[in-house]
């Protein structure tokens, strides 16, 4: 699974390739932009859920969700759209937080999904 990213307009060091690496995620580039991932949660394996991706790498994704996703929730992440890249990896919610507007009203939730 390789997510191509454009490094031409970033100040991050180029590691010689334009692919997200399995190295430490804090120092590696993530593919940022619109798209979505499809997840079948283990508690409802016959129900596919689609989540907007804020960024994605080989190790996981940061997504938008309409409801709170409990830390430790597990499922199978199937694919990324619109790229059509097959992920097919067991996944877990690593964290989830509320995102609020300037007046404090809830807009949505952001969650970190870790791929295994």
Which features does this protein show?
49% strand; 116 residues; mainly beta; 6-stranded antiparallel barrel; Thrombin, subunit H; 0% helix; 7 strands
Describe the structure in your own words.
By secondary structure, the chain is an all-beta fold. The chain has one domain: Thrombin, subunit H (Beta Barrel), CATH 2.40.10.220. The chain has no helices and 7 strands. The protein has strands at 31-32, 36-41, 48-56, 60-65, 74-81, 85-100, 106-115. A 6-stranded antiparallel β-barrel has the order 2-3-4-7-6-5. Strand 6 (85-100) and strand 7 (106-115) form a beta hairpin. It is globular. The protein starts with 30 loop residues before the first strand and ends with a strand.
Listing every helix as H and every strand as E from the N terminus to the C terminus, the arrangement reads: EEEEEEE
Give start-end ranges of low-pLDDT stretches: 2-25
CA-based shape: globular
Radius of gyration computed on alpha carbons: 15 Å
**Which strand order spans the largest sheet, edge to edge or round the barrel?**
2-3-4-7-6-5
Structural class call reads mainly beta
What CATH architecture do you see?
Answer: Beta Barrel
Kindly report the name of the CATH homologous superfamily: predicted glycosyltransferase like domains
Mind summarizing the main beta sheet? 6 strands, antiparallel, barrel
State the total count of DSSP E strands: 7
Question: What's the number of domains?
Answer: 1
